[in-house]
Amino acid sequence: MSRLRSLLTDRLALGLLVLAALVLGMPALKPLFAAFFPALDRPLYEADGFLALTLDHLALAGGASLIAVLLGGAAGIAVTRPFGREFRGILDAVAAMGQTFPPVAVLAVSVPVLGFGPAPALIALTLYGLLPIVENTVAGLESVPEPVREAARGMGMGPGARLWRVELPLAAPVILAGVRTAAVVNLGTAAIASTVGAKTLGLPIIVGLNGSNPAYVIQGAVIVAALAVVLDAGFDRLAARLTRWRPGAA
Question: What is the pTM of this model?
Answer without folding.
Answer: 0.86
